[in-house]
Amino acid sequence: MAIVNENSKTEKAFDIFNVIFMILLCIAFIYPVLNVLAISLSGSAPILRGEVTFYPKDLDFSGYKNVLGNSHIWRSYANTIFVAGVGCVLSLAMTCLAAYPMAFGDFYGKKLYSYMILFTMWFSGGLIPTYLVMTKLNLIDSHWALILNFLCAPYYVIVLKSFFQSIPDSLIESAKLDGANDFVCMIKIVLPLSKPALATIALWIIVAHWNDFIGPLMYLNKRSLYTLQVLLNDIVLQASGAMYEMSDAVQAGDGSMTIPQQVQNAVIFASMVPMLIIYPFVQKYFVKGVMLGSVKG
Amino acid sequence: MKRRKNKQAKEPIDFQIVKRRIWRDRYMYLMVLPVLTYFIIFKYLPMWWLRIAFYDYKILKGFSGSKFVGLDNFRVFLSNPDFLQILWNTLWLNILNLAFVFTAPILFALLLNELSHRRFKKTVQTISYLPHFLSMVVVTSMITTFLSPSLGVLNGIIKSMGGETIHFLGQPKYFRSIMTISGIWQGVGWGSIIYLSALSGIDQEQYEAAVVDGASRFQQIRHITFPGMQGTIVIMLILQIGNLLSVGFEKVYLLQNAQNMGVSEVLSTYVYKMGMQNSNYSLATAVGLFNSIISFALVLFANHMSKKYSDSGLI
User: A85 and A184: one domain?
Assistant: First the structure.
């Protein structure tokens, strides 16, 4: 940072302004989340009067009672955990397999192989052709469509490759002299040295799957397969919570039937709890990863 | 002379050596195999399916039963006045994105860099990443609540100051501002990471030397801090040019409603509706292909610019 001139009044004023501005920004970042939490814990009357800000009024747990007692929500939670969990393990394995030959390989066709992966970053079949291929492969209404569509993202391959490249070649060469093949080298030498990069990518994949909306929107039609984001869209934005036996519908101001605000916000909050819990712990890995990615592939 | 040269170039291909090298790298090929299989099935097969843009494709009849129509699908949407509006909407959102969502993290990084208290700086940074971890559905529902005419905070403030309540999401004129402001909120913290990492590389001695020369704090920021991240800014800007025709589908789709459709329909939502809701696969694919080709051309252009500027391509 620039060095402050202790005698200058404008510079002092700038410092004070800067700190106040940052505090205001932090409030702006946190407020919407606190607002969701506050509404989910408030009674109906203060919510409808628009009085709930960042703390609950007329403490009322009926929202969470509804959420915890609803089998649709539990099932979509389980679906999301399945997709994110299985997707994370398989994607990570595939990304390692893709990145290792790029970093350490010296084989015929390596250039073509790298370009084949990179090209998909800049050009793709797009929404509809991908959907039609999934249809032909009988993957509609299957969680595997979501997992497979996202199995090996070129960007992650590049990040992992540039991390692999920071590992000295001599380690691998000496292992090969001892008779180790590439699989052994990868599992015994490269992967243990790449834990931070692997952790970063694993978390990226989990967050991406957890928050994915267009995937389940396109590939899942059956309600029993819905992941949290599509369920959330139905309940909160399409206001069709009644379909999920959420709670007794109430009459909204314009005469339409809607489910109570505290229930909607309880669902929203329940869906973001895992992300809110993990992000302060993992953000340092994320930051590392962003910097890795910024190093040209 | 020419002949000899040719001979020399050919000579090194010794099939014994080729065979030995392929055998030596057999495990590499074993790794490449599943990866390539995956890419061919899930990434290149859809590209092969792009040819339905030139057919009047009926999913039940398949290719043999569908009629080849050449460029008719492209003619249909290019002559549609709605399409021009959609193209315009897409471009507008991207220009606003470039002007505000892109620049906000740069300013944020500059200001963060001036905080002297380390713990405070770290805390602000951590909090600023929060919106990045929320899904678009959650963000949209927050926007809806915040702007709601009956329950929203913003209308509460307007009412308390004696104004009329405004139905923000129902009025087309507010749509672009909502997209842009929420975009800043979502991305300013996360986007600043890369600039801060560039700033951490600046040598503190430069500042000390500047102070000796009598530079004020603002002069230090202008002549040392800002140039320190200029390279990163240019690269990020070039990358952004490649995205000029792609607006994230999810937020636009979720914020759309019948009233704001005139300004909120963009290429990706149009493709989705054409294909998934109207089952007009050929037309939707044609629009998607049009979009992909222009985006790809922009990427090549950006890469060219990057090579010119920094001697290193991005591809």
Answer: yes
